[in-house]
Recover the amino acids of this structure.
């Protein structure tokens, strides 16, 4: 099978232009501004000789590597049953494992502090567990998508050649999954390396990643040059990681067609595996979420629904009289705007990457840039970049959805890209012989095959916006709070009732995210016509 | 050599065949024919241990393999659409079972080269499986299965989809190859002419069940 | 028709006045107020310093005495002497020699203790900073880190005032030996590890605010009549929050009117029950719900903003070496 020229190659540069421009304007330019203002040789030499910075660098790197490895291992059984079997509650489980990925760190942090025994508060184990909890979905979705396309006949063939199940996994399944595992690992590494909230809440003050150190320097110590140097370090390290990630593997995209091979478990053993792994996954993922609900009704002396009544009745949340449900609507507006922005730019970027030549393919690394960038530094960069005349966006409403879209863009691209790539060339060729222009071909062939994945990516972008707390909590000022910031504000106040109200809002956020993700996975076809 | 004793197989709620029996002597090549949907592939999968039995037993060389997993049965199978490992080269596909047996590297190299010559693909070792034509891919699949030296080889519609001259040549080569090596073969096809050319005996699957 | 002027008031996330609090101001002056919140006081100052001269808004609420010098040194503010200055508590209003900012509220960061714990143990709660190093209180104290938390920093500064610039190091060594637990922020310290509040942790001593006990009463569910926690008054450090006009505003004269409004009795009277801080305007009558359980230390520890600014980074580096490494 030779890779034939894409009929859309001519349009790739135009498609690439918009997302590339957006990243240039909202990421690269502000970063260049803050670097040119704050970077100095003096600061670079000061910090590169500082031994506590070496510790921070080392800790960021190895905890991210450890988190990535553990996540890959822990997520494997769950990925396996979700990719290979059809069973009752499968969609529910898929939505469930995705919830943590889009939950804000304040909520997960608070939930873990409530679930973990005191001896595990501020421990390395707590960090690794939380990172794993957050990122299981990355493996389930990215690796699972590939895994469900491996024909069971292929592993049967290995068995008839004398390979044991374990050997078959090692010599057939794993090599086929290699590229997707590497992609997933790169994404997880990126997210864990730049981890901020989890490190602060669960790791305690004696552990810092680069991102935490950047924040401490910029905000607490007023050492902007130091913060700039460290963000540069971070960018360089992660650029190397991304470069490794985009190296293509031969035979990686040899999928002639999308076919999914999930089957109903037949043997007793298969049923047992599905049942045990499925149940265990559901329990492990649910426990912290359930704890949020438990905390929302637990008071000093038993169970009370007062906090629920107050929030749902839209009464004042204890301190100040900000109506609590206002945050809900604000979040919803941001989520919808983010879905539109990230959806359009993500589709353009994915199209450009899939249809374009190698050089345009580098956009794949570029769209990951927002994840590799220090949120604090980018926030400060935006602040001094968009500060005059009509570009004075600093206090504008649109700044938040733009920030959320930057974070959601890589995910949107990752969801759509494999689907765009797997549209069979033969069908397009057939359309061409029937007289379709490239545009008509795209509208009649590609569009219909991509639509589901695209709608799914929209919902993902919306969910990411709903739960976004990291980057944007610093990026700009708000005229109205979002759900995550409101939860953080309430958690930061004394009083039983205020605390339970924070957990009520967190519960609402979880329900909200769960419903949108469940709707998404309802769209997911079990089998695409081939 | 192969003794299939009264096996019954269900797929979901459908009974594919009921108390089917089949016996093969060592070196015998038997063709099982029947219309599509009559359970030919399922029979091969059942013999290979890829399809659980409802009842009945299967023996290979007097050994009861009924409860033994596929990879320890010593039964090879050429799949209808080959199922070559696309992440491995032609050489590595054929060497797959040799690696499992920890064959020495030099021996392995020689055996794979022999196998490639035998199926008429000398010099194809370094190729990617995605670059092969339909006939070449089938030859690699046969070579891969034969390299494992199975006691019984199962051929599932090995020539379906190949046309005219290609079909005829591969059929001839396969026929000679199997006889020379004295491999015990169960071959399923819907094509009577192919069955006549390849096998010692032809049976209709519908006559095998009680 | 002239477009009415809207002033933008920048504040930290804890700025939560009553709804409609600015209606009276708008009615009297025709000027509207838009409140924009984001981040904590540290983030607020960081951003203000970066945008000095070309500010994001017109007025900044919530710089406190631990951060003030950084902002003043960066020339963030446009000086203004409020007409209410004579009504403001002189202890809070002092020290701002150039009138760059005007005080608006104060709060005290103190050791809070779990009353029930000490009653059960028949133990006197620690009433001074020195007492915290006593073995009777081993493994009982949890504090937010001064590196990442504003009350954490205030508590640290209290120890510097109490034991001197050369004495605090030894004190913290003893505190560490006595099992002080340092966590990231106030939320983890107070709501998770402290035994006297909702988290039901296992540490009966915590660094929090003097206003935390009344908050426990007002926001308890079901209602209670006595606070479960109390404050050790000799351990308190006074935080003063200020408001300032941002240099570069296009509405300087209107911003001055707003500063006057923010320091006037009506607005100041709203502060205790919405934000749990003490107003600085001495003419405000404090609500009973607030005064009943809250304690106002007579002689809180405090420190000149300029001294804090000068030593902060070096002190925190040293503190990190002593306590965290």
């Amino acid at each position: 099978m030779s890779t034939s020229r894409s009929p859309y190659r001519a349009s790739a540069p135009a498609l690439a232009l918009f997302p590339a421009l957006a990243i240039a304007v909202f990421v690269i330019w502000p970063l260049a501004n803050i670097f040119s203002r704050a970077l100095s040789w003096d600061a670079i030499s000061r910090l590169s000789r500082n031994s506590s910075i070496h510790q921070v660098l080392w800790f960021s790197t190895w905890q991210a590597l450890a988190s990535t490895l553990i996540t890959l291992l822990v997520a494997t059984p769950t990925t396996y049953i979700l990719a290979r079997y059809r069973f009752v509650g499968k969609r529910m489980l898929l939505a469930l494992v995705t919830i943590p990925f889009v939950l804000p760190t304040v909520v997960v942090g608070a939930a873990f502090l409530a679930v973990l025994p005191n001896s595990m508060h501020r421990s390395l184990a707590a960090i690794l567990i939380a990172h794993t909890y957050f990122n299981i979905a990355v493996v389930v979705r990215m690796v699972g998508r590939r895994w469900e396309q491996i024909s069971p006949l292929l592993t049967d063939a290995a068995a008839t050649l004398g390979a044991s199940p374990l050997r078959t996994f090692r010599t057939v399944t794993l090599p086929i999954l290699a590229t997707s595992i590497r992609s997933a690992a790169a994404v997880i590494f990126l997210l864990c390396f730049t981890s901020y909230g989890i490190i602060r809440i669960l790791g305690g003050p004696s552990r810092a990643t680069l991102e935490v150190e950047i924040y401490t320097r910029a905000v607490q110590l007023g050492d902007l040059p130091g913060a700039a140097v460290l963000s540069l370090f971070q960018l360089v390290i992660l650029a190397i990681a991304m470069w490794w990630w985009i190296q293509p593997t031969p035979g990686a995209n040899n999928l002639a067609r999308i076919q999914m091979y999930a089957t109903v478990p037949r043997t007793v053993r298969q049923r047992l595996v599905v049942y045990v792994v499925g149940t265990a996954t559901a329990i492990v993922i649910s426990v912290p979420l359930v704890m949020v609900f438990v905390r929302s009704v637990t008071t000093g002396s038993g169970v009370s629904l007062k906090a629920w009544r107050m929030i749902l009745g839209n009464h004042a949340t204890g301190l100040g009289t900000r109506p609590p449900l206002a945050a809900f609507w604000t979040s919803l507006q941001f989520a919808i705007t983010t879905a539109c922005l990230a959806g359009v730019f993500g589709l353009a970027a994915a199209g450009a990457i899939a249809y374009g030549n190698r050089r345009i393919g580098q956009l794949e690394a570029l769209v990951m840039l927002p994840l590799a960038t220090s949120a604090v530094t980018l926030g400060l960069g935006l602040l001094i970049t968009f500060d005059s005349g009509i570009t004075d966006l600093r206090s504008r409403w649109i700044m938040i959805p733009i920030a959320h879209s930057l974070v959601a863009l890589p995910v949107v691209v990752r969801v759509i890209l494999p689907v765009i790539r797997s549209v069979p060339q033969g069908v397009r060729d057939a359309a061409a012989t029937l007289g379709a222009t490239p545009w008509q071909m795209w509208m009649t062939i590609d569009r219909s095959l991509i639509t589901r994945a695209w709608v799914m990516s929209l919902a993902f972008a919306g969910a990411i916006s709903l739960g976004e707390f990291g980057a944007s909590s610093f990026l700009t000022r708000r005229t109205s709070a979002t759900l995550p910031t409101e939860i953080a504000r309430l958690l930061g106040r004394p009083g039983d009732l205020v605390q339970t109200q924070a957990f009520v809002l967190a519960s609402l956020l979880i329900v909200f995210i769960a419903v949108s993700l469940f709707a998404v996975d309802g769209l997911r076809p079990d089998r695409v016509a081939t | 050599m192969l003794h299939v004793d009264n096996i019954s197989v269900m797929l979901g709620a459908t009974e594919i065949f009921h108390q089917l029996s089949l016996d093969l002597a060592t070196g015998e090549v038997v063709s099982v024919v029947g219309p599509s949907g009559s359970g030919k592939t399922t029979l091969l999968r059942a013999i290979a241990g890829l399809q659980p039995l409802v009842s009945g037993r299967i023996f290979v060389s007097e050994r009861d393999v009924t409860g033994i997993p596929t990879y320890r049965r010593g039964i090879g199978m050429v799949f209808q659409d080959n199922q070559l490992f696309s992440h491995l080269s032609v050489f590595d596909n054929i060497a797959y079972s040799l690696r499992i047996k920890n064959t020495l590297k030099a021996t392995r190299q020689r055996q794979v080269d022999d196998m490639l010559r035998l199926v008429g693909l000398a010099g194809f070792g370094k190729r990617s499986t995605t670059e092969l034509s339909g006939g070449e891919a089938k030859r690699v699949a046969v070579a891969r299965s034969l390299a494992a030296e199975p006691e019984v080889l199962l051929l599932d519609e090995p020539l379906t989809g190949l046309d005219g001259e290609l079909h005829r040549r591969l059929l001839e080569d396969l026929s000679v190859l199997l006889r020379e090596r004295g491999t015990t073969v169960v071959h399923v096809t819907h094509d009577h002419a192919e069955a006549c050319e390849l096998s010692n005996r032809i049976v209709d699957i519908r006559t095998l069940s009680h | 028709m002239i477009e009415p002027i809207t002033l933008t008031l920048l504040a930290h996330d804890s700025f939560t006045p009553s709804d409609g609090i600015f209606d009276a101001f708008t009615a009297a002056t025709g000027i509207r107020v838009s409140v924009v919140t984001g981040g904590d006081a540290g983030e607020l100052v960081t951003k203000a310093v970066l945008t000095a001269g070309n500010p994001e808004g017109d007025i900044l609420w919530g710089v406190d005495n631990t951060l003030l010098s950084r902002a003043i040194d960066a020339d963030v503010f446009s000086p203004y002497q409020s007409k209410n200055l004579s009504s403001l508590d002189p202890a809070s209003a002092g020290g701002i020699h150039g009138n760059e900012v005007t005080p608006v509220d104060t709060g005290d960061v103190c050791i809070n203790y779990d009353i029930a714990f000490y009653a059960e143990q028949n133990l006197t709660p620690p009433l001074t900073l020195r007492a915290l190093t006593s073995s009777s209180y081993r493994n009982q104290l949890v504090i937010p880190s001064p590196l990442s938390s504003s009350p954490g920093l205030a508590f640290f500064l209290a120890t510097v005032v109490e034991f001197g610039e050369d004495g605090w190091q030894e004190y913290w060594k003893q505190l560490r030996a006595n099992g002080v637990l340092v966590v990231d922020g106030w939320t983890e310290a107070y709501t998770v590890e402290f035994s006297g509040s909702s988290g039901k942790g296992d540490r009966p001593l915590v660094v929090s605010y003097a206003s935390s006990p009344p908050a426990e009463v007002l926001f308890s569910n079901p209602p209670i009549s006595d606070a479960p926690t109390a404050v050790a008054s000799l351990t308190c450090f006074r935080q003063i929050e200020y408001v300032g006009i941002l240099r570069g505003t296009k509405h300087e004269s209107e911003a001055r009117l707003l500063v006057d409004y923010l320091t006037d009795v009506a607005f100041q009277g709203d502060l205790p029950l919405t934000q749990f801080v003490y107003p600085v305007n001495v003419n405000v009558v404090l609500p009973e719900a607030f005064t009943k359980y809250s304690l106002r230390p007579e002689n809180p520890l405090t420190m000149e903003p300029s001294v804090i600014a000068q030593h902060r980074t070096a002190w925190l580096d040293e503190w990190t070496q002593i306590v965290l490494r």
Chain B has a mean pLDDT of 89. Chains B and C do not touch (no CB pair under 8 Å). Strands of chain B lie at 2-11, 14-24, 29-33, 55-60, 63-64, 75-78, 152-156, 184-189, 201-204.
